[in-house]
User: Which sequence fits this backbone?
């Protein structure tokens, strides 16, 4: 993808809504397009959370490993959503696995770089934290509703 | 003297049907196939029968098979004394049956349009007759999709039919609240499946069945995507004793769920749906 | 019908004997357990001669009158629904057979009954229940109700002594009996907020019309009797009575008019727009207020002449050889009324009280094209904490008018 295409792709992603123009350009310069085939891992539980992913197409299954019971999926995220917030919170390690359910495509950021930019520019940092909080809130709501066992 | 009426058999008197087959679907759900006690019962997808377990009582169970097949099919979850008694039935046993009652899914009105069927848990049972109808008359409809949510992979109903439905032109998307090591599909709320559809709001009908909290959230997804309230249909469940509009138990606002429902067009119940304990 | 006749009080027994000879069991008011209830009447002397009732919110008591009026009271805790819609009724029975079970649904026809002493409000209540159990165009008919209803001879008695709790005048259902006269027109908005397929009777039919066979108006020494059906005319002819003179008829009219005038300053329900008022005010704070007082004791539904909710009970003998299904009166106030697997749609008293009142005054209009309330005031008198529906409705309307 060209730089212009990357900027356009970033601007079109829901996570980037509300970003000031200079911040958008900064982030566009710092991210890279990525592709994963079905079954490939984007993250492994316990490893260093080195990236932050914006999903543009495809689906990613977040999951964990239950020892003798094997790998269990916990939630599926898709186009317009994101994978990862562990990169922002110490100890900066993935809490869950993330595996491509089908062909996944999007934009990836280097976590250390992104953290540095947030420290340097508190306005950018505040905006990204708010966006991530919204993501976390949606994940919590989903988990809570599923925990109600409404089909029982 | 004026003409005196003699008591006719009450509309609440059951006929006796015979169990042809019993099939276990999940841990607490089973499907009964009954021989019809009499021919020519005009049944429509969405309607229900009252099944009577001798000496125990009746339960209102939606028809869950192919309405063009004379055999009567009901998927039942064993949760109370009556449904547990029905669970003990074996082929050859007698069961009381009366019906069909209630309103039906708007399959004629939906002709020429896309249909999105959204089901949660055992909510797929009252919708399966609609699925059969849609697939039998595939050329009458636009795009067809089924969004289905179950608690866990073991609770997925009719899973062995999904591939056949896909082959015949129904896009089946199934999700579970919690996964297990065997599950390769989506995990999350059934509402999360909406993002996988490309809805044409002017040409879509929604048929929804599941717990009321789920139906509320599903309706919001339709609304977010511009599908109007008069093309989204719910099916409601209430305490039913008589099923013929006399006992008063099933009232929901001014509607009798047994006669005016159980299938309701959402714009007609929207006002009462938002009232707690309506 | 011929002009009104005069029935001397001493000949009231002739009317009763004639009805018995025609095969009717005569039921009517009598004093029993400190109240005026309905039961078999053997002779005119069994009627509550010289008794009246004093009623108010949560109170009912009988008092001696200073005269010998036969019908000098308003209404008691019983309504005629106990005969047309019995508190307990076996619907069918079943017994085990070699290969399953067989259902037996033959039911003996109910007896022919003559109701003596039916108030105007009660005639309206019977007409309202006809709407529920009979006139369901395209829906179901209750054959037990139809059988009992077709075997009725109705003798209405105009009301001259309304109780403080009565508001039939406000509801357009009394105190005078004018069979065929309609209560005030029920509003029929073009679109109901619920998926109620408009039944022919709901869309075009007029509100429920009361019907009866004879109407009595009590004077000091006699009754003015009007026949209001061919069956009533036949009985009247066989009684061979003198015509009631114009002065007698004027006396009768004056007494009923006086009763109506007394109610003009009494309890009142503003019925205009009440359907939409209640449907739109499901979250009104008054519901919380009444919920603090209501005991959910179900008295109101028991005494209400139009309440029709029922429950079915399935029973079997110990050996599981025979089974039966019985219908019995139920009430939307019971905790289990809204129960389904996994929960209860109406667990709170607030929800249940709101359901009852909204059904009675609003949903009934959607369902049956007539109000469910006939203004008899029983629910006010027999509520142990004295909840007054006319006051609750006024509060929801926001007027909060005090009733004297």
Assistant:
């Amino acid at each position: 993808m060209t730089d212009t295409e990357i900027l356009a792709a970033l601007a079109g992603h829901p996570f980037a809504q509300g970003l000031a123009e200079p911040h958008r350009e900064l982030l566009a310069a710092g991210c890279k397009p990525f592709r994963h085939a079905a079954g490939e891992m984007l993250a492994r539980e316990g490893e260093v959370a080195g990236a932050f992913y914006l999903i543009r197409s495809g689906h990613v299954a977040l999951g964990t490993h239950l020892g003798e019971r094997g790998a269990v999926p916990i939630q599926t995220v898709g186009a317009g959503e994101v994978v990862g917030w562990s990169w922002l919170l110490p100890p900066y390690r993935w809490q869950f696995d993330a595996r491509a359910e089908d062909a996944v495509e999007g934009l990836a950021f280097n976590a250390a770089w992104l953290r540095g930019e947030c420290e340097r520019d508190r306005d950018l940092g505040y905006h990204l934290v708010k966006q991530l909080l919204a993501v976390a809130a949606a994940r919590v709501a989903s988990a809570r509703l599923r925990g109600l066992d409404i089909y029982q | 003297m004026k003409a005196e009426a003699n008591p006719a058999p009450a509309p609440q008197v059951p006929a006796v049907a015979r169990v042809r087959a019993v099939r276990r679907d999940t841990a607490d759900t089973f499907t009964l196939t009954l021989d019809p006690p009499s021919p020519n019962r005009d049944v429509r997808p969405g309607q229900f029968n009252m099944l009577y377990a001798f000496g125990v009582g009746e339960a209102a169970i939606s028809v869950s098979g192919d309405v063009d097949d004379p055999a009567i099919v009901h998927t039942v979850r064993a949760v109370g004394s009556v449904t547990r008694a029905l669970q003990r039935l074996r082929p050859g046993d007698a069961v009381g049956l009366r019906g069909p009652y209630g309103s039906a899914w708007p399959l004629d009105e939906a002709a020429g349009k896309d249909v999105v069927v959204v089901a949660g848990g055992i909510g797929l049972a009252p919708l399966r007759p609609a699925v059969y109808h849609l697939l039998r008359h595939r050329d009458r409809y636009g795009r067809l999709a089924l969004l289905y949510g179950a608690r866990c992979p073991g609770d997925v109903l009719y899973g062995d039919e999904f591939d056949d439905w896909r082959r015949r032109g129904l896009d089946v998307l199934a999700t579970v609240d919690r996964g297990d090591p065997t599950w390769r599909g989506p995990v999350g709320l059934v509402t999360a499946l909406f993002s996988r559809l490309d809805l044409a709001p002017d040409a879509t009908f929604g048929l929804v069945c599941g717990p009321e909290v789920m139906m509320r959230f599903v309706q919001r997804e339709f609304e977010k995507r511009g599908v109007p309230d008069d093309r989204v249909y719910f099916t409601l469940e209430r305490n039913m004793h008589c099923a013929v509009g006399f006992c008063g138990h099933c009232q929901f606002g001014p509607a009798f769920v047994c006669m005016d429902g159980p299938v309701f067009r959402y714009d007609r119940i929207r006002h009462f749906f938002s009232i707690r304990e309506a | 019908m011929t002009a009104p006749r005069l029935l001397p009080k001493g000949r009231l027994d002739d009317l009763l004997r004639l009805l018995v000879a025609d095969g009717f069991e005569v039921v009517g008011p009598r004093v029993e357990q400190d109240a005026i209830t309905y039961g078999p009447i053997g002779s005119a002397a069994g009627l509550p001669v010289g008794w009246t009732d004093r009623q108010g919110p949560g109170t009912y008591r009988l008092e001696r009158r200073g005269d010998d009026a036969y019908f000098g009271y308003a209404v008691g805790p019983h309504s005629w629904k106990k005969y047309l819609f019995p508190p307990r009724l076996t619907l069918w029975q079943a017994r085990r057979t070699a290969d399953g079970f067989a259902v037996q649904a033959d039911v003996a026809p109910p007896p022919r009954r003559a109701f003596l002493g039916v108030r105007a409000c009660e005639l309206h209540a019977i007409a309202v229940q006809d709407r529920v159990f009979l006139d369901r165009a395209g829906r179901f008919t209750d054959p037990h109700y139809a059988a009992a209803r077709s075997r009725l001879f109705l003798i209405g008695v105009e009301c001259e002594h309304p109780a403080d709790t009565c508001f039939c005048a406000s509801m357009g259902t009394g105190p005078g009996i004018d069979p065929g006269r309609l209560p005030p027109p029920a509003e029929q908005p073009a679109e109901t907020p619920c998926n109620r397929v408009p039944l022919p009777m709901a869309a075009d039919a007029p509100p429920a019309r009361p019907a009866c066979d004879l109407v009595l108006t009590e004077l000091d020494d006699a009754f003015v009797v009007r026949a209001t059906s061919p069956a009533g005319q036949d009985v009247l002819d066989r009684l061979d009575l003198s015509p009631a003179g114009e002065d007698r008829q004027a006396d009768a009219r004056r007494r009923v008019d006086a009763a109506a005038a007394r109610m003009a300053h009494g309890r009142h329900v503003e019925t205009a727009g009440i359907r939409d008022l209640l449907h739109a005010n499901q979250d009104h704070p008054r519901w919380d207020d009444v919920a603090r007082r209501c005991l959910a004791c179900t008295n109101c539904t028991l005494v209400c002449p139009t309440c029709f909710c029922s429950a079915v009970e399935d029973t079997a003998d110990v050996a599981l050889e025979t089974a039966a299904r019985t219908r019995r009166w139920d009430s939307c106030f019971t905790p289990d009324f809204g129960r389904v697997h996994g929960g209860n749609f109406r667990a709170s008293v607030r929800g249940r009280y709101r359901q009852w009142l909204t059904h009675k005054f609003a949903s009934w209009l959607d369902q049956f094209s007539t109000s469910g309330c006939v203004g008899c005031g029983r629910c006010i008198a027999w509520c142990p904490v004295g909840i007054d529906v006319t006051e609750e409705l006024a509060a929801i309307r926001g007027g909060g008018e005090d009733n004297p």
